[in-house]
Amino acid sequence: MPAKSRIVIAEDHTIIREGLRSLLTSDPDFEIVGEAENGLQAVQCIEKLRPDLVLMDISMPRMDGLEAIRRIREHSPDTKILVLTVHKNEEYILATLQAGADGYALKYVSHAELVSAIKTVLRGETYLSPAVSQVVLGGYLEGKKALKRRSSMDSLTPREREILRLVAEGYKNREIAERLYISVKTAETHRSNLMKKLDLHSAAALTAFAIENRIIQ
Fold first, then answer.
1. Is 138 helix (H, G, I), strand (E, B) or coil?
2. What is the predicted pLDDT for the residue at 141?
3. How far apart are CA 176 and CA 163, in angstroms?
4. Residue 207 is part of which domain span?
5. pLDDT at position 215, please?
6. Could you tell me if 131 and 162 lie in one domain?
7. What's the mean pLDDT when you consider all of the chain?
8. Sign of CA dihedral 156, 157, 161, 167
9. CA distances, 77 to each of 46, 65, 83, 102 (Å)
10. CATH code, domain carrying 24
11. Residue 160's domain is classified under what CATH number?
12. How far is it, in rounded angstroms, from Cα 56 to Cα 92?
């Protein structure tokens, strides 16, 4: 008969901790070997028991979950860390994973999903709740888009930068043409090229971009 996976629950709310213990002890593959109600206690418990996995909240007294994760990763590197939290904003997710967590699940997951998350992490794989994956992917794609725009900014010609400034200041194509002594058609072409290079599709978007990049104040 295979050995049960030894788990520690680190959660400062007693009712949630008891609920987790009740749920997980009903699974024949798991054994709850310890509990902690704050971050410092979690670190000490894990250093002593060396469990296979710790189910870790982030917001805990005496030592927050992020610092606890760093210390657990340093002193008990073989223990898998699955975060179970209410927080689903990108900053929390990335900070937790950077600190050394192996997975990130939200507290409103079903019993079946929690068990699946634990088993995934115990296999040495990373687990992210579907909602968390969407947040991370969204942030990644937005970051790539912003990087592309910054790179595109460097590719603008001096004339295109001047056009960008004037558009951001509210000038229309005919007014831009008059100020720069160019034809209206040339002004329209410069404006169209700007939008293509920066992947921006309105005067408002160009204005926001110009402010962000300090083309105008």
1. helix
2. 44
3. 7
4. 156-212
5. 77
6. no
7. 84
8. negative
9. 10, 16, 16, 11
10. 3.40.50.2300
11. 1.10.10.10
12. 13
**pLDDT of res. 85:** 85
For 176-190, give the secondary structure using H, E and C: HHHHHCCCHHHHHHH
For the cut 50, the answer to whether the pLDDT of residue 57 exceeds it is yes
In a domain, 144, yes or no: no
Q: Which residues pair with 6 in a beta bridge?
A: 31
pLDDT of residue 82: 94
Provide the pairing of β-strand 5-10 with 30-36: parallel
What percentage of the chain reaches a pLDDT higher than 90? 35
If one counts the domains in the chain, the total is: 2
State the Cα angle at 72 between 69 and 76, rounded to 5°.
Answer: 150
- Model confidence at 102, pLDDT cuts 50, 70, 90, reads confident
Q: How crowded is the C-beta side of 11, counted as CA atoms within 13 Å?
A: 20
93 and 176 part of one domain: no
Q: What length does the chain have?
A: 217
Same structural domain for residues 128 and 61? yes
| Cβ contact 10:56 at 8 Å | yes
Query: H helices within the chain, ranges in order?
Result: 14-25, 39-49, 65-75, 90-99, 111-122, 130-155, 158-168, 173-180, 184-198, 203-212
Q: List Cβ neighbours of 8 (8 Å cut-off, separation of 6 or more).
A: 32, 33, 34, 35, 36, 42, 45, 46, 49, 51, 53, 54, 55
pLDDT beyond 80 at 175: yes
Instruction: Output DSSP code: residue 214.
Output: T
Does residue 120 share a domain with residue 165?
A: no
